[in-house]
Amino acid sequence: xxxxxxxELPLETYKGPVEPDxxxxxxxxxxxxxxxxxxxxxxxxxxxxxxxxxxxxxxxxPGFFHGYGVHSLHGRAVAxxxxxKLANHDLHVVITGGDGDGYGIGLNHCIHAMRRNLDLTxxxxxxxxxxxxxxxxxxxxxxxxxxxxxPRGNVEMPINPIALALVAGATYxxxxxxxxxxxxxxxxxxxxxxxxxxxxxxxxxxxxxxKINTHQFFRQRCYKLExxxxxxxxxxxxxxxxxxxxxxxxxxxxxxxxxxxxxEDSEPALKKGPLVSHRLSMDKGLFEELMEEFY
Length: 295
Ligand code: SF4
Ligand code: MG
What we know:
- The chain has one domain (21-269): Thiamin diphosphate (ThDP)-binding fold, Pyr/PP domains (Rossmann fold).
- The chain is 32% helix and 15% strand.
- β7, α8 and β8 (250-257) form a beta-alpha-beta unit.
- The protein contains ten helices and eight strands.
- By secondary structure, it is α/β, with parallel strands linked by helices.
- The protein binds iron/sulfur cluster and magnesium ion.
- Magnesium ion (MG) is lined by residues 98-100, 127, 129-131, 138.
């Protein structure tokens, strides 16, 4: 009897033909690397992976990765990814983008995809600033921080992505650090394997326009939840308490993992397999029946 061969794909499999043009030291390099490592760890064939982004420095990522991808519109990555997933729910759909794109203009899509528990992985490269447009305050800029658009200090409270994802209904909620490749790769692999909406918020410092939330800032403050004795990732209330921690110590790792039916599991139209493989034609009798009903 023939035995199945498990093929280990080299990391180069996932490298795109274009070299990233991010500033030297940008956290996004670490996130790209972690995504490559996660794909390798899961032995994902590139044909089964679809990466969608919006607009921003980090949203250039699909161009640097070998796989199917779409560089979509500002704030619309989750909407495009939702459509792709519903058309072919056999695909692993991964969304990549920044805090301005995802938690600003795109937040509405994000919340609704979470409450529907669509089986998507969303990696947000959170640098707490708008990088591509040269340093304005973003939805995650801390109160009081001086930026190009807040020269006297930001008067707004920042969004807390982890708490927001928890109350919106995401069923896998994690946070990583761009400088911790392997740890981040495990979080991303866990998110891709998770059946449901997964948010991986990543501290990915903008070395050019954010001189406060630097690599060093996070290295000094972050600690791993998996090293916390007794921390239970299925405990929603414990996750909320951890989500509210910030200075002086900031938790990273998996905050919460829950089991819920996904939108795809609940939608009758998807029960017969991916829409892309459905027969498009309709027999004459059914067509006439429908016409009669709507006439
Ligand atoms: Fe990265 Fe900031 Fe440079 Fe954009 S401007 S590539 S976010 S370091
Ligand atoms: Mg940003």
